Amino acid sequence: MKTDELFREDATLLACDATVIGHGEGGVLLDRTVCYPLGGGQAGDTGWLAEGGQRWRVADTRKSKEHPGAIVHRVDGESLPAVGATVRVEVDAARRQAHRRFHTATHLLCALLPYPVDGCSITETYARLDFHTDEPFDKDAIQAGLQRLVAEAHPVRHRWISEEELDANPGLVRSMSVQPPRGLGRVRVLEVEGVDLQPCGGTHVSNTAEIGAIVVTKIEKKAAKTRRVVLGFADASLP
Questions:
Q1: How far is CA 203 from the centre of its chain?
Q2: 133-184 per-position pLDDT tens digit
Q3: Quick one: 120 and 104 in the same domain?
Q4: Phi first, then psi: what are they for 32, rounded to 5°?
Q5: CA triplet 11, 169, 190: central angle to 5 degrees?
């Protein structure tokens, strides 16, 4: 039982048709989906499933624990579309776009702050990165750096490399807490042209200019060796 992850190749794809391949873990398992499951610090997508005149709200999307490789769409309501049924899968577009903008912005932060990352959270309303360092951070300098990289309109793209290529370039892995998945023979890497290159399975914009007005809302000392940077949108009413 496996789900074809359409979002890995095209983060702009917001809908698809899919077949129900199972029930369990609080939701519906599909043979393919455009919904990103919680992982890598990024929140899962929400959206809808539709069949005929029925419509179900997808409250969360998670990787299946019972069926490795499958994705569970947790839906509101007691009745579920039947196994074998064809459903329309739709992503909450505004939430997805917020995730794409914030996730790409965290890659810019990694370029500006060359320290290992030991925590990450990407949501619809904020993003944060925890850096392993005791160095003080200059909020204004980070803000100016983000604005510059956004304005420079760097192309953003993903590609796949072999596990052997990753092993030969261990410096590509910035995260201390989340390691790239192994055993598939290949690893997805995200490149912000001329700025950042690292393994990442999340959804991103295609150009840094699409991030728009982003602000550093907070810098915190979380521990002796941890500095946290929190990002928000300049206009929180426009995700």
A1: 5
A2: 999 999 999 999 999 999 999 999 999 988 888 778 877 777 766 666 656 7
A3: yes
A4: -155, 155
A5: 10
Q: Of 58, 91, 124, which residue sits at a domain end?
A: 91
Alpha helical stretches, state H, 79-208: 93-112, 139-151, 163-168
Please, is 136 exposed, middle or buried when counting C-beta atoms within 10 Å of its C-beta (0-12, 13-18, 19+)?
Answer: exposed
- H-type alpha helices, 81-226: 93-112, 139-151, 163-168
Close Cβ partners of 115 (under 8 Å, ≥ 6 residues apart)? 131, 132, 133, 135, 227
35 domain residue, yes or no? yes
Q: Does 82 share its domain with 169?
A: no
Q: What whole-number distance in Å separates Cα of residue 202 and Cα of residue 191?
A: 12
**Tokens standing for 25?**
């873990």
Under a CB-based contact definition with an 8 Å cutoff, are residues 220 and 196 in contact?
no
For 238, phi then psi, to 5°, come to -125, 80
pLDDT number for residue 237: 46
| Total domain count, the chain | 2
What global pTM score does this model have? Answer: 0.92
Domain hosting residue 74, numbered range: 4-91
Percent of the chain with pLDDT over 90: 80
Residues 113-125 pLDDT 10s: 999 999 999 999 9
Distance CA 11, CA 75 (A): 22
Q: Is residue 48 part of a domain?
A: yes
| CATH code of the domain covering residue 31 | 2.40.30.130
Among 71, 91, 111, the domain boundary falls at: 91
**Residue at 239 is within a domain:** no
List the 127-132 sheet strands across, edge first. 117-122, 127-132, 226-233, 214-223
